Each structure stands twice: as C-alpha cells, then as structure tokens.
Input
Amino acid sequence: MSQASSTSSMLPYEEALNLLLQHMASTQQTEVVPIEQAAGRVLAQTIHAQYDAPRFSNSAMDGYAVADINAAHWQVVDYVSAGASTAHLQLQAGQAVRIFTGAAIPAGTEAVIPQENISLDGQQLSLSTTDTSGKPVKALKPGQNIRVKAEEYGAGDVLMSAGQRLSAVAIGLIASQGLAEVDCYKKLNVTVLSSGDELQALGQALAENQIYDSNRYMLLACLQDYASIFNIQNGGVLRDDLAQTKKRLQEVAASSDIILFSGGASVGDRDYAKQALEQIGTLQHWKLAIKPGKPFAWGRIEGQTHTTSVFLLPGNPVASWVTFSVLALPAMKLLAGIPEARVRPTYLEVASSHDIENKNFRLNFMRGVLEHHQGEQAPTVQAFPARLQNSAMLASCVASNALIQVPGHAHIAAGDKVKVLLLSNDI
Output
C-alpha cells in the first residue's frame, strides 16, 4: 500500500477523539453523598451560597481596630476575640480595641493596625515608625486589614456547577456553607479484561513463548487514580476463543458500565474481541494516525437495565497505555459525568531538550520526562524524550512523566516548543 493511501485510511487523533466524545452519553444516575466521603466524586448539582463570605466584616490579623486613621493616638477601650459579640461596641474617633484574626469588626472601625506596628503606653496606642523587623511603617489606609462582608461572594451566588470533580478545597468550601451532604453522580462499574493464549498468570512459571499479563495490571493501576468515580473490577484473561469471548463479555456487561479490554483492538485472525462485540453489540474500529496505538476500537452492549461501553486497546503495552491515556480515559470521564471541556487532555508547551525528527506521517506520542532547569535568566522546564520508544518497551515508561506530541514529518530543533501531556506532577 502506498503512503498516500495508507495515510488517507487512518483517522487523525483529534478527529478520533472528537468522534469518540460525541458518542459518549454522561450518566444521569445520582446519589446523596456525605461530604466526608465526597472527595474526588463528580458533583451532580449546582451549589449556591447560602451565606455571604465573609458573613460579617472581620479582622485579617491580630492587632488593634481603630477609629479615625489620622489620629496621633488611640485609647484602647475594649477587647474582641473571634466569635465574640461586638453589638455593644461603637468606636468613636480616637478609640481602639484589641482584636484578633477573624473577630468581628466593631462599628466605627476604619482600619486594623497589625500588632507588630504599634507602640502601647498603658492603654494609649500609637503607630510605630518601624515594625519589629526594622522596616518603616506606612501610614494607615481606610479599610486596611479588614475582610469586608461578602467581598468573596454573596448569598445566592453559584459556587460550583454540576460536573465538577470535588477537590479537597471544594469540600472545604461546601463545608463552609454548612452543607453536610451533596448530590453526586453514581460511581461507574469498570471491568478490566485482557486476552491472549500467550498470557500467563502472575506467579506461575512461563511455558515456551508465553509472557506475563502486564497490561491488565497496568490499566487497573491507572484507574486507581480515579477510584472515587469508578468501581474497578479485575475481569481476568480471555483465551483466544470466539464463543468464550462472547459469553464472557455478556457476563461482564451485565454488571459493568464500562469494559476496558486490552489486546482486543488488533486485526489478527485470532483477535476475537472485535468479532464478539460485533455479534453481541455494536463496534467502531479505527486505524489511527498515531504512534504508538494505531489500532483502537470501541462499542456498546445493550442490556436490559443499562448500556455498557466497551473500549478495545492494543496489546502492545505502551500502545495500550497511550491509547488509554489520550482516548479511553477522556471518554470514561465524560461517561462519569464530567463535562467534555474538562475531560480533554491538557497540553503544556515547553522547550525540547534535543532535536526530534518524526519521519513517519503519524502523530507520535513519545515518552519523556519534564525537568526543571535553572537557566541563565530564569528557571525553565524542558522535555527530555526517552531513549527507547518501541511500543512494546514498558521500561522507558517507568521514568516518564509525560507524552511529547510530535506531528507527522516534523523536525523539532533543540529549544523549540513541543506540546506535552503531563502524566504526573513529579517534576
């Protein structure tokens, strides 16, 4: 086959991702979740503020609340701690109160002086010329060191929208509004399968020409980062038998929302996953213009109570890892209730450490490492491609924390910008 005809028969990555996401229907099943169990879950409701933030004007630091910022001295008349009432206080010009961080601002307060910026003679307060570190103290400004009522947001404002995955700070924000539980999308049941007569179970001796089943455990581990939105099941190995594959897929589909199948996307005579899916459900099979990961397929199995989405990944370990990261995982996130705009891979643009040449027409996802380097002018981040890039070589992936995207027929000089998908924050 000529290169031209080969190129035209392969689907570009971005087009494949768009088509895949267009055919994914987000779950609509929800459940009420206590906030102490909601970290990482996908929010299924819009959350509005029940209270202003701050609920009342309060001090941003320990110090003294004063009336009349232009006064030469202030008389300290009271003491206000966090949580104490200030209803009885009305500061007059030249008066001050001792106040602590978070305490309500008394009426008449114009500013709060930090405690390190004051001089105190008995109950008479004045502004120091220097602070405790010796730096000059600037003149007071109206509202200085006061957190004003509702300056962050007001009651009724939207705080979070449906589809947001709840981080630790999101949980804190929810708790700050007094909410003890929230509506979340239900976790989706995901089963990971692998196929091949050549696969041997871990811990067993290898027979001639056998290999251990690494892909399934790799994918199960990848999904652990998303255990808050997926219930993950190990589905085991399927042998190269069409009838057994059909039966097992139907069994798994009955209890799974998603099936992730490693080794089922190729076009070999004994790759039965595609045939089985065609016979018991629907199948879309693509040859992708990417490297690694040319074969990729997906489909559905319609059950009595639900539809199961099936993703068939290549058997080569790196190709399986790459297609999971850039295709299957975004689609799975969308199924779990996360909006499309948030599931697409996010790329950084950083400098390449070396010359990179892609003589192939396919988009190359190269394994690599992002590293911080101290430049002459400022720190920089550089992308270092791994030395070995064969799609069967997992060892180079272990040290990699990124996929470097190199377009077809591209020559990238050292120092040129490359698009990089960050797979880990360990840089």
The chain has a mean pLDDT of 90. DSSP finds nine helices and 28 strands in the chain.
